[in-house]
Design a protein that fits this description.
The protein has a single domain, classed as Growth Hormone, Chain: A, CATH 1.20.1250.20. It has eleven helices and two strands, in the order αααααααααβααβ. About 75% of the residues lie in helices and about 0% in strands. It is mainly α and about 250 residues long. The longest helix has about 35 residues.
């Protein structure tokens, strides 16, 4: 193992593991629901709606980030997010058990929204933990490790979705449910001692919005963003900048 990687905080490694497992489940779920909805309804619009509904909660990103800033129970919140995911995914299993297309669609759409929302919550929590667990010198290497782990997990998730579907719709979503339950395990062993910020949720959200208004967008894949390192060490903007980076595949604030 690389010496720099072995020197990273244990709780940060657990955070990366949680992120990778979660991204694996999300990418597999994202592709699976398109095929399932197309098969059940023969309607491309409904299939596209299932894909797009995952992104709807992103409009609440600033409120979510501001709340996570202030909460003392980040670990408990992360565990709760995982359990809520499992609960809603179980409703999809119930729909297939009933063989009712309406129940299947409603459960997929509601699960998609919840997965998107809880992803936003977990991303904010991970951003806060990254700020706590990594030193200034470790951040560049640590963020690279996390980026690689998440990208590999995402690719494997997309590839695995077809394999899962080959065993039937019910079994496919059962596997995804188990994946999200497993993703909770690393969180349980994370040790965090950071204190929450004392500012109100409204003030935190307003600060993030003001920062965006005064910032220029740039392409993350093509342009180096000087704030990408700064945001981890600056508690005032950490969640909001990180949230904007994580919730968009191509745009960050520079």
């Amino acid at each position: 193992m690389d010496r720099q990687t072995s020197d990273l905080n244990r709780s940060f490694k657990l955070t990366v593991l949680n992120s990778g497992i979660s991204r694996f489940g999300l990418s597999a779920f994202n592709l699976m629901i398109i095929w399932v909805i197309l098969y059940e309804t023969k309607n491309a619009f409904l299939a596209g709606l299932g894909d797009g509904i995952l992104s709807l909660p992103l409009f609440l990103s600033f409120l979510v980030g501001a709340y996570v800033d202030r909460t003392r129970s980040k670990k408990e919140l992360a565990v709760a997010a995982g359990l809520v995911r499992a609960f809603f995914l179980s409703s999809i299993l119930f729909g297939f058990y009933l063989h009712n297309v309406i129940v299947i669609l409603l459960s997929i759409y509601s699960s998609g929204f919840i997965l998107g929302f809880t992803s936003d919550v977990l991303n904010s929590i991970r951003a806060s933990w990254t700020k706590e667990f990594l030193t200034q010198e470790q951040y560049k290497h640590g963020s690279s490790v996390q980026s690689v782990a998440v990208s590999v997990a995402e690719g494997i998730g997309y590839l695995s979705s077809g394999i899962f579907l080959a065993f039937g719709f019910y079994n496919s979503f059962l596997v995804i449910l188990l994946v999200f339950l497993i993703s909770i395990l690393p969180v349980i062993f994370v040790r965090s001692s950071a204190k929450p910020e004392v500012k109100s949720t409204a003030d935190s959200a307003r600060e993030g919005l003001n920062f965006i208004r005064g910032s220029k967008p740039c392409l993350a894949d093509d342009v180096h963003c000087p704030y990408r390192q700064h945001d981890v060490r600056d508690g005032r903007h950490n969640i909001h900048i990180s949230g904007a980076t994580q919730t968009s595949s191509s745009i960050v604030l520079c």
